[in-house]
Design goal:
Elements: E1 2-3, E2 9-11, E3 14-16, H1 42-45, E4 54-56, H2 63-67, E5 74-77, H3 88-94, E6 97-100, H4 106-121, H5 124-133, E7 154-158, H6 162-171, E8 177-181, H7 187-192, E9 196-197, H8 200-206, E10 209-212, H9 226-230, E11 236-240, H10 249-257, E12 261-265, E13 285-287, H11 296-314, E14 323-324
Parallel strand pairs: 4-5, 5-6, 7-8, 7-10, 8-9, 10-11, 11-12, 12-13
Antiparallel strand pairs: 1-4, 2-3, 6-14
């Protein structure tokens, strides 16, 4: 999606005008479409570059394309993660704001992550399936030995950014001992959040439930693998709700198939999920098709954040609603566009 700060705003080839008094010309409070899809094509972008002052979405912006957009002042990413298709150094050198809506997904993703953890710990999907097939045992007498309480357990968070911080208050009533591994946060910063900073290996060896909440980076791609899973107690739970690229996918499915772990998964290596994806038939898994953040209630909030910060940029004010790309870390992110 492309927008320009002018009296006439071009959105996907359509021209619209703002009719609301007091708002920046061309900005509207609108509901973004879930699953915004791949970045805009070169055919759409190139003719607009010379006059473009803001981009909503994250089309590829190498330095050559930025040079052809002399008026560009802001890139507002609505995908959720900053993508590695932008020359961030060039943007920062020119004072171009690069903004993202990532924090808006914290609450809905955290709620689903907790729900999936409880479903896995208590084996809820199996109980439902057995009733529907007529094979249930009343009170699950004798066959519920693998279930466990989340209350009082040691829980590990891989990543303590916006997702981790949204999950922490939801875990408070359970009285869990909380561990966290996040190399981008100092130990004192983690302790201030009420978690114990540990190494990745220690987190997996001590935790009964692990939430994988980290984005993919140049340092952690595929770093959670077989050794991590093997050190967990039998029947433990791994909840993956950030990006599949953080884990060794085959090793995670192997651990679930063997019965050693239960894996609750909302993200996949390839999306849309291929028909032949192995996870579809792997026992010991609970699957969700990247729906954790897609709750209708948040989309108006997304539109308001984008409209407010687009208005601020056009009025020479600092954007305050969206997340600013961090010059120290953004170039190390390796998320891919969804769709």
């Amino acid at each position: 999606m492309l927008e320009a700060c002018s009296s006439s705003t071009r959105i996907r080839g359509r021209s619209t005008r703002s009719s609301r008094p007091g708002r920046a010309p061309g900005s509207r409070r609108s509901r973004p479409s879930p699953g915004d899809g791949p970045p805009a094509t070169a055919e759409l972008v190139e003719p607009l570059l010379p006059e473009l002052t803001a981009i909503v979405g994250q089309t590829a912006l190498p330095v050559e394309r930025l040079d052809r957009a002399p008026r560009l002042r802001a890139v507002l990413n609505v995908e959720g993660n900053f993508l590695p298709n932008v020359d961030y150094a060039a943007c920062f050198a020119r004072g171009i704001e690069v903004l993202g809506i990532g924090p808006v997904f914290g609450e809905p993703v955290a709620e689903l992550a907790l729900g999936m953890a409880l479903a896995a710990a208590r084996d809820i999907p199996r109980g439902d399936a057995e009733i529907r097939s007529g094979t249930e045992t009343m009170f699950d007498d004798g066959v519920n030995g693998g279930s466990f309480l989340l209350a009082g357990k040691t829980v590990g968070l891989v990543g303590c950014g916006s997702l981790g911080r949204a999950l922490l208050p939801l875990l408070e009533p359970f009285g869990c001992r909380l561990l966290a591994h996040d190399p981008w946060l100092a130990d004192d910063a983690l302790r201030a959040l009420g978690v114990e900073p540990v190494t990745l290996a220690e987190l997996f060896s001590r935790s009964r439930v692990v939430f994988v909440l980290s984005p993919v980076t140049t340092e952690n791609a595929g770093s959670i693998g077989r050794e991590c899973f093997e050190t967990m107690a039998a029947g433990s739970v791994v909840v993956l709700v950030s990006r599949a690229g953080v884990v060794d996918w085959a090793a995670l499915l192997d651990a679930a198939a063997s019965g050693h772990l239960r894996a609750a998964i909302d993200v996949f290596p390839e999306e849309p999920i291929p028909a032949g994806e192995r996870a579809r038939t792997t026992p010991g898994t609970i699957l969700s098709a990247h729906r954790a953040g897609n709750v209708p209630e948040i989309w108006r909030r997304v539109g308001e954040m984008v409209a407010d910060d687009l208005e601020a940029v056009c009025a020479d004010r600092p954007p305050l609603r969206m997340q600013r790309a961090d010059p120290a870390t953004v170039a190390r992110l390796r998320s891919r566009p969804i769709g």
